[in-house]
Amino acid sequence: FYNALSGSIPPSIGNFSYVSFLRLHGNQFTGTIPTELGQLTKLKELYLSQNYLTGGIPSEFGLLTNLGDLRLFLNTDLGGTIPDEMYNMTVLQRFYAWSSGLTGPISSKVGQLTDMYHFIARRNQLTGTIPSEFIKMPSLQLLWLHFNNFTGPVPDELCTKSPPIRDITADCGAVTVSVAKNPCSCCYACCDDICVTETADNRAFLRA
Fold first, then answer.
1. Sequence-ordered alpha helix ranges (H) in the chain
2. pLDDT top residue among 183 and 198
3. Most exposed among 26, 93, 95, 158, judged by the fewest C-beta atoms under 10 Å?
4. Are strands 69-71 and 94-96 parallel, antiparallel or unpaired?
5. Prior bond to 163 cis, omega within 30?
6. How far apart (Å, rounded) are the C-alpha atoms in residues 172 and 179?
7. pTM tops 0.85, yes or no
8. Cα 113–115–120 angle (5° rounding)?
9. Running DSSP on this structure, what letter comes out for residue 147?
């Protein structure tokens, strides 16, 4: 990682079936994510963030049932939806996909990701409502969904979840707009064009 590698990720990468950790972040890779990565079923960590990848998240990622950490953030033109097959990754603990051009809704199947700890999908073009099924994640600590196009409030179930979600951030602010897109009674930070925390500390700037 951070080696200024360029070009496409070769399909032959799927031959490395023994690999548990694959970190290709911080390079200059272009093109689509090879579907052959789905053959690396021993993977526990897959870091593809901070590249120039396109073509969306392959549905074959659903085969990575041992993957605990998936990082796709800052592939600004990655695009596409979160494929339903990805919700088969039931041991996934960290999903970092901010600023990746993701579109469409988050399926109610997200509740199948029962080991999830951090779900960060801010600054995309996600739509639909925010699923209440996040309550099925007993270890969830961070849920950052701000700077998207969700409709409706943050479900009350997320505010009364036990154990609680430590930090929910959503487009629940009304600083520069008259009505918040996603009203929330328990969010640590609320955003519209900017983010404001209850304590007004500098953590707000980390959510940009």
1. 156-159
2. 183
3. 26
4. parallel
5. yes
6. 9
7. yes
8. 70
9. S
